[in-house]
Design goal:
The chain is of the alpha/beta class. The protein has 12 helices and 14 strands.
């Protein structure tokens, strides 16, 4: 029987990236062996480690590898040793460079509260129980990319900083379509978050999302101002299903929502374009614990599940990985960031091994 073949670009990155990526690759190997699928894993450098070798956070060889792959796995980038660098060559530019070059425009962040970790949340169990939110963040517009931008010296000798909030109708329309399509696969509820009462660009956002909604009569569309959404995420997060919002608002709201679950180390993400996609945990490189074998690999492992679901059309296998993570938590295994007094403290590698063991059991 001929193997299916997928080419995956692997950028472990900086800090804890290499440790958590190692555990994710264990999971890919199990799927590969069991399903007779050939995952061609090609490792490259991106971030601070790439700067150390090439003088740039995203060398041409890595960019070419990403472009030629079916999907990209990224661990984490950045660290204090590179903070002195000019903004244009800091490790984080690798992520922005990959997004831009791959035409990635939609960031998906699933916010799921595992029953086994409810007591780790800073909010009451009754508030966070049952949380299952998908935040869809637009990635190509807003103040992140709008021009003019920069810091200039004024005639009076005072500096002036400028960032421009810009969205085109096409940019709004394509992220809205993606969000409606995702809502159709869930509870068919979509909330669009904006600031249309103040900003003209947000008036356009609301108008276009509403227009797109007419093509999805089976999905209930609501609108909410961003300040109220930030409040509601703390007050009653379980009310939300799918949230679609702008680059800036999505950046802030998704990090706020991440802490509802108790640990940012638990949450994966998917960044999607028309043809390419990038998968990564939402936490940073955590240089303070790098090399200590204590980091939580579950977000990286769950990012593999997202890759199987959204890029490789393997939803059943994605679900098995997610089930294996849930089962591992039920068995009481915890890394340091989610440890509780009555649970079993394990290392990064041990957590990966337990998830792998459960995955093998589910596959059989």
């Amino acid at each position: 029987m001929k193997k299916e073949c997928f080419k995956i670009a692997v950028f472990a990155g900086d800090g804890i990236g290499r440790e958590i990526m190692k555990e994710a690759l264990k999971i890919i190997k199990i799927i590969s062996d069991d399903k007779n699928i050939n995952f061609q894993l090609h490792e490259g450098l991106a971030g601070g480690c790439a700067y150390d070798h090439f003088g740039t956070p995203l060398p041409d060889s890595s960019l070419q590898l990403a472009r030629q792959s079916d999907a990209v796995l990224l661990g984490a980038v950045g660290g204090p040793q590179w903070e002195h660098l000019d903004y244009s060559i800091r490790p984080e530019r690798a992520l922005l460079g990959l997004r831009g070059s791959l035409g990635i425009y939609a960031n998906l962040r699933p916010i799921v509260a595992f029953d086994e970790l409810l007591d780790a949340s800073p909010l009451k169990r009754s508030i966070v129980q049952g949380i299952d939110i998908m935040i869809v963040r637009e990635l190509t517009g807003d103040v992140y990319f709008g021009k003019p931008r920069g810091i200039k010296q004024g005639k009076n000798g005072k500096r002036k900083g400028t960032n421009t909030l810009v969205y085109t109708e096409d940019e709004i329309r394509r992220i809205a379509v993606r969000a409606f399509e995702i809502a159709r696969t869930r509870k068919k509820n979509l909330l669009s978050v904006d600031k249309a009462n103040i900003l003209e660009t947000m008036e356009l956002w609301r108008d276009v999302v509403t227009e797109v909604g007419r093509s999805y009569p089976d999905v209930t569309l609501q609108h909410m101002y961003v300040d109220n959404c930030a409040l509601q995420l703390i007050r009653n997060p379980a009310q939300f299903d799918v949230i679609v919002t702008t680059n800036l608002f999505g950046d802030i709201l998704s990090d706020e929502a991440a802490m509802l679950t108790g640990s940012i180390g638990m949450l994966p993400s998917a960044s999607l374009g028309k043809k390419s996609a990038l998968y990564e945990p939402i936490h940073g490189s955590a240089p303070d614990i790098a090399g200590q074998n204590v980091a939580n690999p579950l977000a990286m492992i769950l990012s593999v599940a997202l890759m199987l679901r959204y890029s490789l059309s393997m939803p059943a296998e994605a679900q098995l990985i997610e089930n294996a993570v849930t089962e591992t938590l039920k068995e009481g295994f915890r890394t340091r960031d989610i440890h509780q007094p009555d649970k079993k403290l394990v290392s990064t590698a041990e957590m990966g091994d337990h998830v792998a063991e459960n995955l093998r059991r589910f596959l059989n």
